[in-house]
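User: Is it possible to get a 3D structure for a protein together with its bound compound? The compound here is magnesium ion. I've pasted both below.
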Amino acid sequence: MKFGGTSVGGPERMECVAEILASRIETSEITAVVSAMGGVTDMLVRAATEASRGDREHWKGVRAELARRHREVADRSLSAAEQAVVLPRLAEYMRDFENLCSGFSLVREVTPRAMDTLSSLGELMSATLVAAILRSQGHKAEAVDAAEIIVTDEAFGNASPLMDETTPKARSRLAPLRRSGAVPVMTGFRGATRDGQTTTLGRGGSDYSATIIGAALDADEVWIWSDVDGVMTADPRLVPGARIIPEISYREAIELSFFGAKVLHPKTIQPVMKKKIPVWIKNSFNPSCVGTKICAAAQNGQAGAKAITSVSDAVLVTMNGKDSLSFPRLATRVFNGLHLEDVTTLMATQSSAENVLCFAIRQSELPRVKARLEKTFELEILHEYVGVLEVVPKVAVVVVVGEKMKGTPGIAGRAFGALGKRGINLIAIAQGSSELSISFAVKASEVKEAVQAVHDEFEL
Ligand code: ASP
Ligand code: MG
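Assistant: Yes, that's possible. Here is the predicted structure of the complex:
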């Protein structure tokens, strides 16, 4: 069971987590994974960044706030005996915070490696507190640092697990605890390289921690507790009538999280997919709600579209290879440029005999991409062998997702027909042969109406 930042956001919330865990201790062997208290990771990252810019004061304010929030939980939710154990430990973490930040402000730099050590302190503190709350209530529990278990590569800030090394560590560290009836409360987000350097799994990575551990332990299920009732048919801010989906497939879930539906860290599904371990999305604020089950063969209520997601801060970039650059050559060089900038595309299309390549990326990545491609094609653009980079700003990419769209004729027709009826113009369209999703670009100002139109059309 993994609990996100809002689920451990304060004393009452952490007590709810303890209650959810405690109610199942008798009947199941549970491993808990916790995020930092809501907002804490942002504060840590900001403190490090400001310190590295030479600000010697900002982090002191953060220190006070962090100490206050964690101390409040200790004061309100722990027995006196547990306070005696936990308060010195929290003080140690705060000293680490101070030492790191004052170091960053002196050298005016923070390396990705040092950032990982600092940014994951929140998880160490929340795991310490949740385990102590359970013990205060008479249950057996132990806080476990995932850096002792999850072995990762050296991609600091966005590390990936090495499962062959992680699996035996997870078993030898966690199985004895679980057998003795104790709940291991593990830090999310954190891991460590083979030689013990702390890494993190990327922002929002505690979901990923949970499925990594679930796969390593051959868990029956992974439950992800957040603050929403489940995966929804659309963003409820765009579509007020959006509903919870009872079951979706792994592939649908991956598709949805890649395109910005904030349900899961995009890599979350990978570890459990091969082992077919189901993942549940549940709401810790509404624990009796069943939530959404993500599994291999999801029961689909209806053929066709299942959910709609969108990215509304996108731009479309078009490059024209004209007669001189074949499409494969143009694409090779363009995508190599994107790869070098570590930019992923939201959609891409090839059109017409003129070798025109069009792709969508996030607005924030445009300056880097533009500079890179103008450099890559400097000569060709100068001699007009290649058309200048055209950019359509303020675009939204809408993605209609559903495994059962495959082989069902008329889905695209219905989706686009619904847009046409509302006078919404499609700027670009893409669908691959997997037919798992149909993507299209519209004006950002029309995204709400577009998503609503498709939602209505498929009666989601
Ligand atoms: N605390 C980390 C973050 O905010 C990891 C997580 O919450 O999943 O990114
Ligand atoms: Mg979080």
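The CA atoms of residues 318 and 390 lie 5 Å apart. The first strand starts at residue 2 and ends at 3.
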